[in-house]
Amino acid sequence: MRIDLHTHSNRSDGTDTPAELVVNAALAGLDVVALTDHDATTGWDEARAAGEREGVVVVPGIEISTTFHGESVHLLGYAFDPAHPPLVEELERVLGGRDQRLPRILARLAEHGIDITEEDVALQSGAAAASGRPHIADAMVAKGYIGHRDEAFQGWLNSRGRAYVERYAAPLLGAVRLLKDAGGQAVVAHPWSRGSDRVLTADAFEELAALGLDGIEVDHVDHDDVAAGQERRQVGDRREVHPPQRRGHGLGEVADPAGPGRDDAVGGRRLPQQHPGDHVGVGQQVDLEGHDDPQVAAGAAHGPE
Q: What is the DSSP string of 16-57?
């Protein structure tokens, strides 16, 4: 059983359509894949339809941009009601924050002689729910200012970059409550990378667990496989938060837009076989589209804006 619970399509910062993502998941030998686009659920129906055709279980999901004590933290959500009004309103605020900062980032780039227009960015964002930094980076590549998306995040668009602009992100505690109120599962994504480790302490996880947090990502390309994995599993044991495993980002994402790039298509590394009764994350606590057999609903989860 091979499972990837963290992927992005072109509805956020991936390159595959939701259907292409599922087809490629099947070709990679995956049995279950979650579509977790940034702050958007617009690809769910297309992915589900492709899953029915390809024989792949599609878990509806999302990756919400949140903030906690001044640091960016990403929150994965699974199997929630996408029409839950308070959640819809919060996601609209988050997506609006992306669009509102776009002209400000472009103005800062222009101050340094990089002439990128909103139309240039729109050509790259296509069907995405909002235009984000990865699309700006792709426009910079298309116009010849840089050679690869990664370069934009090394000096221009990262949190210390010359053209970086803050935007609205949902408060982490509130986002966990919203997902739980919408009937979903909440998992902190790549918690020991990108500055999240400065605020996601054991006490923080105790607070999150009290709100109903269901899991944390442990096996991630941005985490040390031994030290971080052992320490984070200990945190999960103490706080009754189950630490799911994942390999990295998913299909269709050619780079990590929050830092150094990576070209890790889903299914590229097989994780150790999981067995019934193993605690590996949200799968054992949620009926994934009717699949409550632990061999289907649980497993190793593979694995911004």
A: S-HHHHHHHHHHTT-SEEEE--BT--TTHHHHHHHHHHHT-E
Q: How many CB atoms lie within 10 A of CB 89?
A: 10
Q: Mention every residue, 6+ apart, whose C-beta is less than 8 A from residue 19.
A: 46, 47, 49, 50
Is the CB of residue 71 less than 8 Å from the CB of residue 207? no
Residue 103 in 3-state DSSP? helix
> Any idea which residue has 């297309």 for tokens?
46
Alpha helices by DSSP H, listed for the chain, are 18-27, 44-54, 85-111, 118-125, 133-142, 149-155, 172-181, 202-211, 227-239, 294-297
Q: How far is CA 103 from CA 110, 176, 190, 286, in A?
A: 10, 30, 29, 41
Per-chain mean pLDDT for the chain: 79
Torsion of CA 128, 130, 132, 138, to 10 degrees: 40
| Gap between the Cα atoms of 127 and 165, Å rounded | 23
Distance CA 287, CA 231 (A): 29
Q: Convert the pLDDT of each residue in 214-256 to its tens digit.
A: 998 776 666 665 545 555 555 555 555 555 444 434 443 333 3
With residue 170 as reference, give the H or E element that holds it.
strand 170-171
Can you tell me the distance from the alpha carbon of 201 to that of 207, in angstroms, rounded to the nearest whole number? 10
Report the alpha-carbon distance of residue 44 to residue 55 in Å, rounded.
16
Specify burial of residue 185 (Cβ count, 10 A radius: 0-12, 13-18, 19+): buried
Q: Residues 159-168: pLDDT tens digits? A: 889 999 999 9
**Residue-level length of the chain:** 305
